Amino acid sequence: MTPLVWHLRDRALDLSARPLVMGILNVTPDSFSDGGRFSDPALAVARGLQLIEQGADVLDIGGESTRPGAEPVPLDEELRRVVPVVRELASRGAVPISVDTLKPEVAREALAAGAHILNDVSGFRDPRMIAVARDARCGVVAMHMRGDPATMQHNPQYADAAGEVTAYLEERLRALGESGIPHEAICLDPGIGFGKALEHNLELLANLGAIAALGRPVCLGASRKGFIGAVCGRALEHRDAGSLAVACFAAARGTAHVLRVHDVPAARDAVLLLSAIDRHRR
Ligand code: HH2
Asked: Does a structural domain hold residue 225?
């Protein structure tokens, strides 16, 4: 089997042995799950260190909520939220830092502060984001989103959700490659909950293998999202068991390689157990 490696600036992560746990750190007042808890930079740094201690392999730091209908954040404010936290956590050097942003200025400053990955929920539609990533030779997460956060949940329609999302990501992989971002730096993400109704999210999860077959790692961000609440009848604060079930489903099938989660200790235990069991497969 060819090893699945993700290149991020000065390092390379091997994703063949087990999925990585990407811990979510939202430095925002309004994120759908943890908004307001870590909006102070000192609290955010402490939370980041806690996530590393709990077993996060990567941290994903965001300063602008992308939940449906979220208010856009002015550039100055996003820089103020994100850059000092990235600088402090990157200086500890323990794990690669990903930055969840749509703004090229934030991306550039975060990379200068030591970030390793750009996570762009619009799939690098903005050529300026591509240029920033190319110049820094950083890792990228290219996600599928239908529309934009303001309107994406207004009656999304697909004839074939899994097929359309896979085709979109295949096109992004090609376009990013042609723009000078090596395939080895790219991770793909179906964008669970971004312009998708319940059945679209379920169809995507059931057919993630088609995205994995594009040959790049798949990042899966299902943690605490609305479809888990819809299937299980659970309010936001009671979705961690469902989130873990989704992560395990994809990890066990080998169709997700980076699990973007709020509950890091549970995801860490799950991936360690799955890989321990898998090593005994005949
Ligand atoms: N989901 C969210 C934000 N960023 N990035 C990737 N690659 N994949 C995802 O599924 C994804 C993402 C939304 O979740 P969260 O960060 O918890 O909330 P908010 O956007 O409200 O800050």
From this structure: yes
262-275: pLDDT as tens digits? 999 999 999 999 99
Are 132 and 150 spatial neighbours (Cβ–Cβ below 8 Å)? no
- The string of pLDDT tens digits covering residues 40-99 is 889 999 999 999 999 999 999 999 998 887 888 999 999 999 999 999 999 997 899 999
Give the span between the Cα atoms of 49 and 255, in whole angstroms: 28
Mutate to test the pocket of ligand 1, among 21, 33, 66 (most ligand atoms within 8 A of CB): 66
The pair of structure tokens assigned to 97 is 């830092």
CATH code, 30: 3.20.20.20
Cα separation of 233 and 185, whole Å?
A: 38
- For 219, phi then psi, to 5°, come to -100, 135
- Backbone torsion region of residue 142, taken as left when φ is above 0, otherwise alpha when ψ lies between -120 and 50, otherwise beta: beta
Kindly state the helix (H) or strand (E) to which residue 11 belongs, with its residue range. Answer: strand 11-14
Residue 65: inside a domain, yes or no? yes
- CA atoms 213, 141, 16, 273: torsion sign: negative
**Cβ partners under 8 Å of residue 97, min gap 6:** 58, 59, 61, 86, 89, 90, 110, 114, 115, 116, 117
Whether 140 maps to a domain, the answer reads: yes
The answer to whether 184 and 5 are in contact (CB under 8 A) is yes
* Tally of domains in the chain: 1
Q: Is the CB of 32 under 6 A from ligand 1?
A: yes
Torsions phi, psi of 132, nearest 5? -65, -45
66 C-beta closer than 6 A to ligand 1: yes
Residues with catalytic annotation? Answer: 225, 260
Q: Which domain holds residue 210?
A: 18-278
Q: From the CB of 222, is ligand 1 less than 6 Å away?
A: no
